[in-house]
Amino acid sequence: MADMSASLCEQVRDAKADNTPLNIIGGNTKAFIGREAIGSPVSLSGHSGVTAYHPSELVITARAGTRITELQSILAENNQMLVGEPPAFEGKATLGGTVACNVSGASRPFYGSLRDAILGVTLINGFGEHLRFGGQVMKNVAGYDLSRLQAGAMGAFGILTDISLRVMPKPEATETLMLEMDTQQAITVMRKWVISGYPLSGAAWVDGNLYIRLAGSAPNVAVYSNNIGGEKLSHQSLFWRSIRNFRHPFFSHDGHLYRLSIDASAPHITQFEHTLVDWAGNVRWVFTDEPHESLTQIAKQHGGHVARYRSKAELSGSRRNDNSECFNALSPPIQHLHQSLKAAFDPQHLFNPGRLYSWLGVERLAGERLGVDRQGGESQ
After folding, report:
1. Which of 87, 111, 251 is closest to 174 using CA atoms?
2. Which of 154, 119, 120 is nearest to 35 (CA)?
3. CB 205 within 8 Å of CB 211
4. Distance (Å, rounded) from C-alpha 89 to C-alpha 247?
5. What letter would DSSP give residue 77?
6. Rounded CA separation 1/49 (Å)
7. Is 64 exposed, middle or buried (0-12, 13-18, 19+ CB in 10 A)?
8. Region for 362 from its dihedrals, namely left if φ exceeds 0, alpha if ψ lies in -120 to 50, beta otherwise
9. Residue 124, Cα to own-chain centre: how many angstroms?
10. What's the CA gap between 111 and 100, in Å, rounded?
11. pLDDT tens readout for residues 265-277
């Protein structure tokens, strides 16, 4: 356990003086998400440790470099768990990186995301100031929720140093059932059970099989398990971990990996050879060499958006690296809002330039504040 806040602030001030971009690194497990990172590396792996934990209040606070596995272990001692079931990536994933990329596992549509559980954060902005947003209690947000703004920002607005989270009790019982059926049947069945109020905590389809995870009281799980039928999965946790950690054989296919976040009731999209359905139909993972623009249109037709993930081949250099945009194009007003926030938090574009969007990159905004007050946080 170590507090590196002062050292990190000094690194940012030096980068500001030298006008040097910074590449924020936690466990370096999510390089495949977003565009290629550039800049001098700033490691938060040593900035770790749980600083506060109140089991009776379901709240935990930890430094950004704390590993997800450490948090899971501490919470398990009190029969609690993280909201959103974030991946541990072979024990290397950190809390800060997980929040920055906003990644969640199978329980996301049923229990919420890690973003939903954020109560407060501290971060270092582009001026080298250490700011606090939110707090360590359930009701702390007034006005702009700048704490949750950091979720999915890919480090664009600053270096997260500490994060307070709401946690949740573990269910008394869980059971995963496997049923053989095609993709469209699975989508239809999943929606039926969601609407009917089945106690689901996971619903996915891959390779001709539907996987349904039930969670709750033991009697309730037993009743719904009998209603569903199918084969009980003996090593259920291994299956769900393989998906959220991108270790399932599905993720070894060639081509660009896309995640379509669409209307859960949308029909199966038949044009892709390899598909994995997750989040009870809300997420469709596909491999294809079609351009990002084509996938954007397909997702839009089904009420959603798309993200491109870089494949293992791209990261290893054995495939031409496509560093085009990875996320959906934003409308001009929303893009302007992103640029306004960047100008407020990081006017010199020091942090992970271009990682989220190319236009949120190395170009300068000439110090334009665009009406956002940089004193929005409490200086420490």
Report:
1. 111
2. 154
3. yes
4. 9
5. T
6. 5
7. buried
8. alpha
9. 21
10. 19
11. 999 999 999 999 9
* Domains present along the chain, CATH in parentheses: 5-169 (3.30.465.10), 172-323 (no CATH)
Question: Could you give the C-alpha distances from 175 to 68, 80, 221, 241, 268, in angstroms and in order?
Answer: 23, 18, 7, 14, 26
Name the region of 7 (left: φ>0; alpha: ψ -120 to 50; beta: rest): alpha
Per-residue pLDDT reduced to its tens digit, 132-141 = 998 765 444 4
Distance CA 56, CA 321 (A): 48
- The answer for residues whose C-beta is within 8 angstroms of residue 51's C-beta and 6 or more apart is 61, 62, 63, 162
**Residues 380, 121: Cα–Cα separation, whole Å:** 12
- CB atoms closer than 10 angstroms to residue 185: 14
Which tokens sit at 380?
């420490």
Q: With helix as H, strand as E and coil as C, how does 193-211 read?
A: HHHCCCCEEEEEEECCEEE
Residue 260 neighbours by CB under 8 Å, 6+ apart: 269, 283, 284, 285, 286, 295, 298, 299, 302, 304, 305, 306
Which tokens go with 74?
């501490």
Q: Are 193 and 200 in contact (CB under 8 A)?
A: yes
Q: For 42-61, how does the pLDDT look when each residue is reduced to its tens digit (9 = 90+)? A: 999 999 999 999 999 999 99
Q: How far apart are CA 161 and CA 47, in angstroms?
A: 8
Enter the pTM of the model. 0.90
